[in-house]
Amino acid sequence: MNAPWNPARGSMHREPFIGFVCDDATAEFVKPVAAEFGWSIEKINKGGLRNAVQTLSVSASPHVLFVDMSESVNPLQDINALAEVCEPGTVVIAAGHVNDVRLYRDLLTSGIQDYLLKPFTPDQLRDAFAHAQMVLAGPRNADGAPARPHSLTAVIGIRGGVGASSVATSLAWSFAEKKQRLTALLDLDLHFGTAALSMDLEPGRGLVDAIENPGRIDGLFLERAMVKASDMLSILSAEASMNRPMLTDGSAFFQLQEEIRAAFECTVVDIPRNILIQHPHLLHVVNAVVVVTELTLAATRDMMRLLGWFKSNAPAVRIIVVANKVPVVGGSEISRKDFESSIEHKIDYVIGFDQKVAVQATKLCRTLADVGKGNRHFNPLGELVEELLALSDGTDDGAGYGAGKSGDGAKSAKAAGGPTLMNKLNELKAMLPSKGKAKVG
Ligand SMILES: Nc1ncnc2c1ncn2[C@@H]1O[C@H](COP(=O)(O)OP(=O)(O)OP(=O)(O)O)[C@@H](O)[C@H]1O
Ligand SMILES: [Mg+2]
């Protein structure tokens, strides 16, 4: 649960199981099932939730905690008191007489793993304990495979609608399904995110709860808050109410990244530009930032500004520029060469505009990478996945900011009288087709 880490308590031995029951009948009921799991029946105490709070405030929390809430007048308040003293990593199973779905939901949100309505059967208790053990084993350790370095990729769209979320979901899908890495997709577009929608999933309340109560974020919270798209891919996203601005100092985002990092092998974070500007610290732990752009004048201007911003706010981060929706026939508003020389950075990957694949992906609720398998316009996504994994696995030379820096652009800026924004914009204007000429793309 949420008790802050305490070095004195941290060094104490953690019992595999402790129970706090309200009456002898419940104690006699729990004992044989606990014994089946190899847990000591001596650890089943009287005093219910009240005693649990008192005891755990001065001793180490067990791995599995059973609390009887039958005598609790205000179960939610009491569970929150328990959360204050119970350390992260404890799986809590509660039992009680109150049959109210709202209470059940609130209890789960407060961090308990399961709520058993009394009277419950030995099988129900057995199942709850078995599930607790599974949760403790954790997804990463389940197959005993050695942990690979975590890959954390941020995806940012330079303008609205350039396809950043399509690239983010495609990358997450590729990590999970093609590379078989346990992957999380974190969609920080709280009001208008499309990660869950594009895979035909309900986003749930997890992300909104996390932002409203950052203190509750821990491994178990994450386990419940994330929505599973498949065995290998989980999503954390929201459709926050439009009547409610989501105010955060960014600590929840950072903490979520940390918890996800501990539980998954790959993370893809879809970061809207406004969130990035407000919370630059989100980039401190990423392996790479994928900036998705289109080849237009506005995108060129914003790319120049964003690359400048990266230089001051995240100078060490690897920036990968992906041009998406690039017209396959006809030209784009700005040519690739002019775009690269203006932004002084090369375009690392070019993804063509393919309406057929996009429509198919939407209809089937699948990602562009999935539907566009074998389609040459989307092949660069596969190459991008390889580069991102090479970066995190340490097999890429990871040259930091400007890895894709274009020498030509530097020269042309100099020729125009110095690398000021005005000079670059003047150059851009000169590149635009003169009045009367139709724009292509
Ligand atoms: N390469 C492509 N070819 C054709 N259509 C594409 C391509 N990439 C993305 N799209 C389409 O563009 C639309 C916008 O994509 P998406 O939602 O990913 O953009 P975004 O940058 O995340 O937008 P927002 O700014 O709203 O977050 C979607 O309908 C998507 O299917
Ligand atoms: Mg988006």
Largest β sheet strand count, sense and barrel closure: 8 strands, mixed
At the fourth CATH level, what is the homologous superfamily of the largest domain? Answer: P-loop containing nucleotide triphosphate hydrolases
Estimate what percentage of residues fall within beta strands.
5-15%
Specify the helix fraction band.
40-55%
- For the largest beta sheet, what order do the strands appear in spatially? 8-9-7-10-6-11-12-13
Q: Which spans have pLDDT < 50 for at least 5 consecutive residues? A: 4-11, 141-146, 405-417, 435-441
The secondary structure category is: alpha/beta
Give the helix tally: 19
Mean pLDDT: 84
CATH topology of the largest domain: Rossmann fold
The number of domains is 2
Explain this structure.
α2 packs across α6 and α3 (48-56) runs parallel beside α4. The protein has helices at residues 7-10, 24-36, 48-56, 75-85, 101-109, 122-137, 164-178, 195-198, 206-212, 219-225, 251-263, 273-278, 297-313, 336-343, 355-364, 368-371, 379-393, 407-415, 421-431; strands at residues 17-21, 44-46, 64-68, 91-96, 114-117, 151-157, 183-187, 227-228, 233-236, 266-270, 288-293, 318-326, 349-352. β12, α14 (336-343) and β13 (349-352) form a beta-alpha-beta unit. It has two domains: 15-137, Response regulator (Rossmann fold, 3-Layer(aba) Sandwich); 151-428, Rossmann fold. The chain has 19 helices and 13 strands. The chain is elongated and about 85 Å long. The protein has 441 residues and is α/β, with parallel strands linked by helices. It has an eight-stranded mixed sheet with strand order 8-9-7-10-6-11-12-13, with helices on both faces. The protein has a five-stranded parallel sheet with strand order 2-1-3-4-5, with helices on both faces. The longest helix is centred in the last third of the chain and has 17 residues, at 297-313. The structure holds adenosine-5'-triphosphate (ATP) and magnesium ion (MG). The site of adenosine-5'-triphosphate has 19 residues, from α7, β12 and α15.
